[in-house]
Amino acid sequence: MGNEIRAHALLPVRRMPFSYHPPTTTECPVCEELARSSHAPLVDQRDGKAAAAGGYPVHNWYYFVLGYTPEFPDHLIRRFDVDASHLVVDPFMGSGTTLVCCKARGIPSLGVDANDFFVDAARVKLRWDLDTAVLREQLETILGRYSARMRELRGNDGHRHLARYAEKHRPPMLTERYVSDVPFAKLHVLRGAVEGSVPPGHDRDFFNLALSSVIVPASNVAYGPGFGVRAPKEDEDVLGMFEAKAGRMIADVETIPADVVPTPATAHLGDSRDLLELIEPGTVDLMITSPPYPGDHEYTKHSRVELIFMGYANSIAELRDIKQTMIRGSTTNVYKRDDDGRFVEGFDSIHRVTGEIDRRLRRDNATSGFEKLYTKLVREYFGGMYRVLEQAHAALRPGGRFSLLVSDSHSFKMVHISTADILREIGLEVGFSGADIDLWQLKRSTSHGYDLRENCLTLRK
Predict the structure, then answer these.
(1) How far is CA 412 from the centre of its chain?
(2) What is the C-alpha separation between 294 and 219, in angstroms, rounded?
(3) Which residues have CB under 8 Å from 130's CB, separation 6+?
(4) Each residue of 344-356: pLDDT tens digit?
(5) What pTM, to 2 d.p., does this model score?
């Protein structure tokens, strides 16, 4: 398309500090049957990974390891002939992949997410009316202020002075286990340089996102895709990473066609189970998203260092407030008062899954606190998605579609959860007239020997 942002050459994917050591030899007859009967996936496994977003302008400013690449929304936009006369909504937008794809093509879009940091990241990625000459001047000022402050801090004491600085300024929840002293001190000085060089507003937000994107590479945290902590990094070239990222972001802005810059694209902080608080009924043509799925991934954990370092969450209570507005995808964000499970009490498919999990828990005499929450989590997940699908149905125009990218799961005692199939059943129950499931990609699990199906479920109103 003429208005499509052209991708830079794909960047090399950084190796993760994880290796494949399956903890279970439990067989899965469902996976074996699916492997015999499956059609070829729509996308190569390598191209479907979130890390591939690093090769795309604007998308590469910041992307979420559990998200998807632009390949997915691009595929659906082409498939359904979406154009500037349509409205696209992503109710689990993450850092805005769907919205960036739409804006690049002049298609109005709206996104919702419960994670404060992701919402602000998406807003920066959608703000293209920036003066790049001013940004370059501001970048030079930031680099100079950082260098001057670092010379002052180091003195004759080098890293030991930086360690003392880190001890003084480190947030209590961001311990040295997650970010070593010297990299933390450099990140903190850089944040001060941004604040001291750029007045509050869109330009400062731009540079804060560049800073946010180098926090994890400078830290001891890694994802594969689960959360992990590697050997401590005693030092890191924080300034070099920041300068490269900010420079690339400025260059990306310069490549954006002027005619798509004014295209409406809005990012909202909110609970996807209450979409109608943000969207007028009957106004949406297409919804594209990848919601959490019952894979026991705790989604704030995958942005926790950014949330804490950038000041979005300063306590466990503030993190909990964010988690409570999310679909229940992990045992670490299930709460006593949760009752979304009541919406799916009549679904035999969910009872079969929870019944088999209970049976295996009894068989293994599993009594840990998290294991006791497995069946409640499954009910709460699908109950929460029931609410999302019900609201989405009301928000769509007649003939509108809702496409969801969801993976099967083996996270709870190796019981196979066919996520797309159950969500299709729920979608038809809440009023959608039809549904299609296409195999998007096969994802190699790090916990067993099977390729899990990641499916595109499309519901039609």
Answers:
(1) 22
(2) 28
(3) 202, 203, 206, 253
(4) 999 999 999 999 9
(5) 0.90
